[in-house]
Amino acid sequence: MSGSITREPDSIRYPAASQDEKPSFVTTGQVALTGLEKTLSRIPPPRQALIALAGSIIQIVNLQIQTLITALYDTAELT
Hints:
Residues 1-21 are annotated as: Disordered. The protein is mainly alpha-helical. The chain is 59% helix and 8% strand.
């Protein structure tokens, strides 16, 4: 296992939503979170909590998927 290379998982990438930021790219999960954050300002407070919870769930699932893809890639690399 010496000399193994770890690689970031491939994902669909979109340009950052705000033009005020430096040019950068974000993952699809981050695009979804950005959309939720923009929507929060237009929604009554009781629903804001539900949307914030949904955003957290999206973030956790996105991280789990990235971890799974990396593990599968590393396993395939070993065989």
